[in-house]
Write a structure and sequence with these properties.
There is one protein chain. The protein is an alpha/beta fold. It folds into two domains: 152 residues, P-loop containing nucleotide triphosphate hydrolases (Rossmann fold, 3-Layer(aba) Sandwich); 72 residues, Conserved Hypothetical Protein Ylqf, Chain: A, domain 2. The chain is 45% helix and 11% strand. It has a six-stranded mixed sheet, with helices on both faces. Helix 6 packs across helix 7, helix 7 packs across helix 10 and helix 9 packs across helix 10. It is globular. Bound molecules: guanosine-5'-triphosphate (GTP) and magnesium ion (MG). The site of magnesium ion has 5 residues, from helix 5.
Length: 287
């Protein structure tokens, strides 16, 4: 059995050794897929630059992508919207890495970090110009640090995906950062994912699968019927159906769903107002 490697430690080490850290996030879920803990590590060290590559934007309407770009820029974060699949802005990303180096550094070391399955290895391969870093539709695919020489000046380290500890299981399913085989209860997980997607974008599952349902339980049953997933005795095989449904979301991105930037802004405003009120209360008490 292989030894379980400490991915967070590997990533921390890479951040320490890099001039430019590129955080690859999922363009469908820009706020959920950020690993703030690692971002803060970069920000704390003077001389290091953080760039965010908002990848997979081919799966999101352009107007939504632009809204997210503005949100990040307003927060003072450099962001580039990329698609490894459609080779969108990959050259812009390469140039941005080189241009963002602080100080007089000729040989640039960069590392790509982020949650599993966001497209780190795919992007690096395009920058390299040929497939060098193994890619797969499986979260947790990269298991070791790999260095790729992109130009004479620039080398990039590919790192394994890391999961922030505050992410709920449902968020992990939504983001596709977990393999269905790793789940203790696939059927329950599939219900949770249906529920989650329904709250973000009601009706999208109904439309994509052409199935009408009132509850997630009913959806998976009808899905199993529609795909004719049955056990030997003829009864519906709900576990198999659940695994297929999860895989279609996690590996194939079949369901067009994304985080709503307006809701993000609203929540942020509420949070900031609460914090302000809290501070004012404290100020009043201290006088
Ligand atoms: N639609 C779309 N899919 C992408 C894009 N970039 C990567 N993918 C797909 O996302 C999956 C994961 O890609 P990888 O490059 O292996 O992701 P990773 O971040 O290196 O994943 P780990 O090594 O597991 O952390 C693959 O199925 C890719 O084909 C993109 O821009 N758009
Ligand atoms: Mg990888």
């Amino acid at each position: 059995m292989g030894k379980k490697r400490d991915y967070p430690a590997m990533v921390r080490k890479m951040i320490r050794g890099s001039d430019v850290v590129v955080e690859v996030i999922d363009g469908r879920f820009p706020s959920l897929s950020r690993a703030k803990k690692y971002e803060n590590m970069v920000k704390r060290v003077r001389g290091k630059t953080l760039l965010i590559a908002m990848n997979k934007v081919d799966l999101v309407p352009r107007q939504v992508v632009n809204q997210w770009k503005k949100i990040f820029m307003d927060e003072g974060i450099s962001v580039i919207a990329t698609s490894a699949r459609e080779r969108l802005s990959t050259n812009v990303l390469k140039k941005a890495i080189i241009r963002s180096v602080k100080g007089e550094i000729f040989f640039i070391t960069s590392c790509f970090i982020g949650l599993p399955n966001t497209g780190k290895s795919s992007l690096i391969n395009i920058l390299k110009g040929r497939s060098s870093a193994p890619v797969a539709p499986i979260p947790g695919f990269t298991k070791a640090i790999q260095v790729l020489r992109i130009t004479t000046r620039l080398r990039i380290f590919d790192t394994p995906g890391v999961l922030p500890s505050n992410l709920s299981l449902t968020d992990k399913l939504l983001l596709g950062t977990i393999r269905p085989e790793q789940l203790p209860d696939t059927l329950r997980a599939s219900w949770a994912l249906v529920n989650r997607i329904d709250t973000i974008k009601p009706n999208v599952i109904k439309e994509i699968y052409g199935i009408n349902y009132e509850t997630p339980v009913e959806f998976i049953e009808k899905f199993a019927e529609k795909r004719n997933k049955r056990k030997k005795g003829g009864e519906l095989d709900l576990d198999t159906a659940a695994t297929i449904f999860l895989n279609e979301h996690i590996n194939k991105g079949k369901i067009p769903v994304w985080e709503n930037p307006n809701e993000y802004l609203q929540k942020k405003e509420e949070r900031e107002r609460e914090e302000r009120e809290e501070r004012e209360k404290e100020d009043n008490l201290s006088f």
